[in-house]
């Protein structure tokens, strides 16, 4: 046991802004789901605005953030995604091969960002009486046909989000239980234990300033708030 521990090294994997985004998005999505069930429309709307701000931040951070948080580092072609997916079941490849998202996980991140972004944006234009006659802040600026279309998107797209969230959770549990790789813990602490012989690969990650990341997130939040306020006014 001591030899095994001496052969492992703790490395930094995820920056604070990425982890903040991840868990804040979880809270926002769960809050939006719960308040939808309880018809707590004001809180539901705030959760939706929060999701939009988080999505805007993640898009920006995907270009200016830490090296392994950038889209260019984890969006791979179909050959690499299929090759990775084929090797996972038989255990011939580990998530440790990648200093960030694996090829399949990278696309899962992109799809989730797109889906929750669509959900948040469609909510801005939605208008219906099932939510206590709630009108989205931008509904007054579009036609009734577009508002109706946005309603349909809002109610249909959420099912895709549920499916992707379920797949995401299943994948994390699969790695934890079957492959003994704690991806969840790494997203909490930002670090993970890796074999000493590959630790240098993780040392090459270039981490962006967390202060800059938080500042961008705050600016995104203020931008969404200003947009909603102006539209309501």
Automatic annotation (TrEMBL):
Residues 14-190 form the Cytochrome b561 bacterial/Ni-hydrogenase domain. Gene3D superfamilies: Transmembrane di-heme cytochromes, Chain C. The chain crosses the membrane at residues 20-36, 43-64, 104-125, 160-178, 207-228. It comes from Thalassospira profundimaris. SUPFAM superfamilies: Transmembrane di-heme cytochromes. It is a multi-pass membrane protein. One of its GO terms (cellular component) is plasma membrane. This is Cytochrome B6. It comes from the Bacteria. It is found in: Cell membrane.
């Amino acid at each position: 046991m001591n030899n095994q521990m001496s052969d492992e090294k703790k490395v930094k994997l995820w920056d604070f802004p990425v982890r903040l985004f991840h868990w804040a998005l979880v809270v926002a999505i769960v809050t939006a789901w719960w308040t939808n069930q309880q018809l707590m429309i004001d809180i539901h709307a705030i959760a939706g605005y929060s999701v939009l701000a988080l999505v805007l931040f993640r898009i920006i951070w995907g270009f200016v953030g830490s090296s392994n948080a950038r889209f260019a580092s984890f969006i791979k072609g179909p050959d690499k995604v299929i090759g990775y997916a084929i090797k996972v079941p038989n255990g011939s490849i580990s998530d440790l091969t990648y200093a960030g998202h694996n090829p399949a996980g990278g696309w899962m991140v992109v799809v989730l960002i797109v889906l929750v972004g669509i959900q948040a944006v469609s909510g801005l234009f939605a208008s219906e009486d099932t939510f206590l006659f709630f009108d989205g802040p931008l509904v007054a600026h579009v036609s009734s046909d577009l508002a109706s279309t946005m309603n349909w998107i809002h109610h249909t797209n959420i099912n895709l989000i549920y499916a992707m969230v379920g797949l995401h959770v299943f994948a994390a549990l699969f790695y934890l239980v079957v492959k003994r790789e704690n991806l969840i813990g790494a997203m909490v602490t930002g670090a993970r234990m890796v074999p000493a012989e590959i630790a240098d690969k993780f040392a090459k990650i270039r981490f962006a300033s967390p202060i800059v990341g938080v500042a961008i997130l705050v600016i995104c939040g203020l931008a969404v708030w200003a947009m909603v306020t102006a539209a309501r006014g």
